[in-house]
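Field log, afternoon session.

UNIT: design team B
ACTIVITY: writing a sequence onto a fixed backbone
BACKBONE:
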């Protein structure tokens, strides 16, 4: 019988110890659940992926046209990136992550979706700080093409616009820095962002200082630990 718990990998990172674990839960159909932890904090679980996938589907649904070039900020367990690649209009996908360990788990296919991402020639991993690249439009997200513009930027790194994975990330959530990122988005392009919380009016107001249209979506999903529904949210912004 497979073990009920396994730590697949644990390594130091600039943000602290990061670990990849696999858990088998007989009460939930005996399926494998993959988890990522940073220190004692859970970053991602494959048990709850609906909102991460919705980040792609809702964000890309707001776009028109074909041959789309898209950036995903934050690799996690790959669910946002794989959901994006299901859109046949995608021509190029850059997945930006600051942690070499997380990219390595996918490249080495130690997580289930790594094989899918590695097999799709449209996908490319970029090792770097999303926030540094977002606020430097002269170089931008693509290390092989300075100043390239994209149709969409999909962000899933911080827990919410006011709860940060790293305290230094707070500086991104200003009109000035969001505007720098928006310089890298084509006209009528999209910025979309995941949050673990319900939509926050103050953040919607901030987004409206930069983007022409801002919509917030509540994504509900079943949570077996609570015996009912949980919610996350996705902000979708369109550039004028």
């Amino acid at each position: 019988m497979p073990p009920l718990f396994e730590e697949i990998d644990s390594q130091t990172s600039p943000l602290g110890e990061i670990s990849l674990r696999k858990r088998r839960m007989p009460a939930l159909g005996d399926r494998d659940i993959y988890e990522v932890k940073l220190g004692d904090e859970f970053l991602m679980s494959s048990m709850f992926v609906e909102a991460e996938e919705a980040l792609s589907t809702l964000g890309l649904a707001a776009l028109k046209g074909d041959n789309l070039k898209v950036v995903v900020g934050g690799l996690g367990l790959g669910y946002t990136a794989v959901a994006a690649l299901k859109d046949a209009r995608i021509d190029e996908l850059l997945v930006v992550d600051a942690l070499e360990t997380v990219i390595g788990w996918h490249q080495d296919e130690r997580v289930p979706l790594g094989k899918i991402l590695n097999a799709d020639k449209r996908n490319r991993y970029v090792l770097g700080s999303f926030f540094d690249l977002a606020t430097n439009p002269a170089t931008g997200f693509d290390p092989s093409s300075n100043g390239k513009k994209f149709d969409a930027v999909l962000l899933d790194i911080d827990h919410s616009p006011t709860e940060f994975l790293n305290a230094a990330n707070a500086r991104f959530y200003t009109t000035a820095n969001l505007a720098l990122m928006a310089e890298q988005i084509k006209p009528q392009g999209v910025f979309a962002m995941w949050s673990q919380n319900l939509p926050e009016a103050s953040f919607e107001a901030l987004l409206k200082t930069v983007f022409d249209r801002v919509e917030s979506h509540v994504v509900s999903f079943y949570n077996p630990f609570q015996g009912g529904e949980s919610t996350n949210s996705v902000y979708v912004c369109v550039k004028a």
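LOG NOTE: The chain is about 20% helix and 35% strand.
NEXT ACTIVITY: expression trials, pending approval
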